[in-house]
Every structure is written in structure tokens, then in C-alpha cells.
Write a structure and sequence with these properties.
This is Extracellular solute-binding protein. Keywords: Signal, Transport. This protein is of the alpha/beta class. The protein is built from 17 helices and twelve strands. A hairpin with a 2-residue loop joins strand 4 and strand 5. Helix 16 packs antiparallel against helix 17. The protein is globular and about 65 Å long.
Length: 427
């Protein structure tokens, strides 16, 4: 087995163990109680009937009624009520409804909330009706807690490197790099050819861990030890990854204080001809660049050390245990994750399909840039499904900022994250 394959296998195993190590549940149950852990009762055959209360956030909450109407047309004795929920208030609304026993039948759930909601015993395990093997592996892992799936991936996103092809040619770059060293050399070449900064990297602040974590995975690092029993932020592989990230700032290639909201304009002007982001930025940079700009840039895979790894985001669909119509809820989930429905949803929202087979549709496979995101999804991963991840992520962000802006020794930063994560625990 080659080095790249070994690293990918090890990373997948570590992420699986993270789910096992997440907040535990009592596996013992009285004979009359529902199974506590991965067993979910069968879904009755036949049309969906009754009524469903569904919550969804943001644009998804606005667009989902259209698919709900189509499903109700196929199931005329079913009524679906979709309630849009603002993202900024969604988490608190969910936890309050769980505590009050008023959670909806079905909802869009943030991937980093899974461990917390399972710890609250709020989610129904995924039934056999759903083919869990059809999803991208990294996306499916976001539904897992204690080796049990409690949701399905609804849509996904991942990040690639956006770069100016025309300016690369002017800088003498004839082929895109595939490794860490090559990416840094390319960023420096842009600067040598007149760019103000070679690449835009987030120097701390909320969510900056999403830039560093893929580098850790790429280098064979992980958030926990192999058996999932302890955190491993201070491993040699992780320190090397953070050191590489820091070098862009210490070498003056990336700005330690970028102006927020100017990524698209700076990319279009050539002031900062590289950045890392998701597919939603395609339309944004083309709008900033104007007519013909689509021919002046491209995307490339994340650079590799051991593997090319990226961050996987998106949202899951989960059925709540208090649902009085779980069969209809899961049938609607099954409908939303059929290949054809996923393609239709992409057309409505541009949300990328979580079902791998949907990427064979011409609307995705025919778009060369989008297809590259699909390829990266095969080695894209998510943070652990543990109850305390949000707290740990905040500590991570704080140390990343110190590394980028205050030249903190990466080994000291990782030691600090390790200490705080261990103190917080896994839930």
C-alpha cells in the first residue's frame, strides 16, 4: 500500500473512532423500551400520510417547499409544513424545542451539532430504508455518533484553491502545483510578478480552524489518537501543518490583517490572485471580474503532503425522536436523497449533492470547475461529532490567530489547544 493510501486509511479510521469516542449513551434498555444505539424500527411500506412539521435554515428553508409540493403530489394524503429558520438563531431554537419536547418531525441539522443532539437523546437512528453507502464517505461520517448514524447528508460543500490562470502564465507558472512546497512557490511567484499578496489565508478569527485542519489531515495528522481515546493536537504531524500555515505570514506571502469582504475584488484586480474557498465563490468572483473573467481563473485541488485533504461542510437531515409521524418523515428524507431529487435540488439552490451518483448528471459533470469539487469531496473530512466541538473550535481559532499575527511558536500553540481540549473533554 502506498503512502498516500495508508494516510487516507488511517485518517478514515481515526474519524470513525472519533465518532465512537463521542458522548456516550446507555446501551442497556428495558425489554419494552426502544433500542438505545443504532437500531431503528422498520419503516412501514406504502404512501406517506398524515402531517409533517419540517424546519430548514436560510435559502434551504425558502426553497424546500417546492420539493415538498412534489412529494405531496405523490402522496396526496400527506401535508408538509416547512418553517424557515434563520441560521443565527437555529441552534438555540433547536435546543429549546428539544428541552420542551416540541421539536419538529424533521429538520436540517448542522453537521457539528450531531454529537450534542444525540447526547440529548433527540434524534432517531437512521433506518435501513436509507442506503448509507450512496453518500460521500466524509459526509456520511458527519452523521455518525457511537458507530450509529442519526441523520443523512443532505447537501455538501468543500474547498479548493482558486487561482488566476492569466496571472500565473505571466508569472511563468506552466503547471499547477500538487504539494505544499509547490503551492507556496506559486504564491511567491505571483508576488514577484506584481501581486500585493500571493494568497489570502484567514489569519485567525471565527472558523480559521477550517483552513488549518485540512493541512493537519493532509500531513497524516488527526484530532485524536488512533484509538480515539485522547486528543492529539500536539502531534508532530499537526505541529508541522501549523508551521507550514504560519510560514505564509512570516514570509510576507499572506496578509496578517486582510480587509474583510474584499476577497472577490482583490482576486478580480489581481492584488491577491489565490484564495481557498467553496463553489459559491465562483459566481461571486465572476460578478466582481465582469464579462470574460470566467476565462481568467480556475480551481485546483488542495495541496498534499501525504494526501490532498479538504474540509467538508453542508447540512444533514435528521428525524426527531418525538416525531409522531416518523415513517412519513423518513420517507420524505429518502425522497430528498434520491439521485434525481438531488440534481433537481442543485438546480434550485446550487447546493452540491451528497449522493455521489448525482454528480454524473450533465449539470454537474459538464461543468469542469464543479467536477473538481466533486473529486475533492472524495478526500474531504469533517470535524468530530462530539458534544464539545464548538468550544474546542473556539480555542483552536484563538491559537491560530496568535500563530498568524503574533508569531507564536506552533508547537506552543498546539500544546495549548491540547491542554484546553483535554480540559473541556469530549462530552
Amino acid at each position: 500500500m502506498n503512502t498516500r493510501k495508508r494516510a487516507l486509511v488511517a485518517l478514515t479510521a481515526a474519524l470513525s473512532l472519533l465518532s465512537i469516542a463521542a458522548c456516550g449513551r446507555d446501551d442497556t434498555a428495558d425489554p419494552g423500551e426502544e433500542p438505545a444505539g443504532g437500531e431503528s424500527s422498520e419503516i412501514a411500506e406504502g404512501p406517506a400520510t398524515g402531517s409533517l412539521e419540517v424546519w430548514a435554515m436560510g435559502a434551504e428553508g425558502e426553497k424546500l417547499p417546492e420539493l415538498a409540493e412534489a412529494f405531496m403530489a405523490e402522496n396526496p394524503d400527506l401535508e408538509i409544513n416547512v418553517t424557515p429558520v434563520p441560521w443565527e438563531s437555529a441552534h438555540d431554537k433547536f435546543t429549546a424545542s428539544i428541552a420542551a419536547g416540541t421539536a419538529p418531525d424533521l429538520a436540517q441539522v448542522g453537521t457539528t451539532w450531531m454529537g450534542e443532539f444525540v447526547a440529548l437523546d433527540a434524534l432517531d437512528p437512521t433506518p435501513a430504508l436509507i442506503d448509507q453507502g450512496k453518500f460521500f464517505e466524509g459526509a456520511q461520517q458527519t452523521t455518525m455518533v457511537n458507530e450509529t448514524s442519526y441523520a443523512v447528508p443532505w447537501y455538501v460543500e468543500t474547498r479548493l484553491v482558486f487561482y488566476r490562470t492569466d496571472l500565473a502564465e505571466q508569472a511563468g507558472i506552466t503547471e499547477t502545483p500538487s504539494d505544499w512546497e509547490g503551492l507556496k512557490e506559486m504564491a511567491k511567484a505571483y508576488q514577484d510578478n506584481g501581486a500585493e499578496w500571493g494568497i489570502n489565508l484567514q489569519p485567525g478569527g471565527t472558523g480559521s480552524w477550517q483552513t488549518v485542519l485540512p493541512l493537519m489531515w493532509s500531513n497524516g495528522g488527526s484530532i485524536t489518537t488512533e484509538d480515539g481515546s485522547e486528543f492529539a493536537f500536539d502531534s508532530e504531524e499537526n505541529v508541522e501543518a501549523l508551521t507550514y500555515f504560519q510560514s505564509y505570514f512570516t514570509d510576507g506571502i499572506a496578509n496578517t490583517a486582510p480587509t474583510q469582504g474584499t476577497t472577490e475584488a482583490d482576486f478580480a484586480s489581481g492584488a491577491v490572485p489565490m484564495f481557498i474557498s467553496g463553489p459559491w465563490m465562483m459566481a461571486a468572483v465572476e460578478a466582481a471580474g465582469g464579462e470574460g473573467f470566467a476565462d481568467k481563473y480556475d480551481v485546483m485541488p488542495m495541496p498534499e503532503a501525504e494526501i490532498s485533504a479538504s474540509f467538508i461542510g453542508g447540512s444533514n437531515l435528521a428525524v426527531f425522536k418525538n416525531s409522531e409521524n416518523r415513517d412519513a418523515a423518513w420517507k420524505f428524507v429518502d425522497y430528498l436523497t434520491q439521485e434525481e431529487t438531488q440534481v433537481e435540488w442543485f438546480g434550485l439552490t446550487t447546493d452540491l449533492p451528497s449522493v455521489q451518483a448525482a454528480w454524473d448528471d450533465e449539470s454537474l459533470s459538464g461543468n469542469e470547475m464543479l467536477s473538481k469539487f466533486g473529486t475533492q469531496l472524495e478526500t474531504a473530512f469533517a470535524p468530530p461529532s462530539i458534544q464539545t466541538w464548538e468550544q474546542i473550535a473556539n480555542a483552536f481559532d484563538s491559537q491560530v490567530e496568535q500563530v498568524a499575527k503574533a508569531d507564536l511558536d506552533p508547537a506552543e500553540a498546539m500544546a495549548a489547544i491540547q491542554q484546553e481540549a483535554t480540559s473541556i473533554g469530549m462530552g
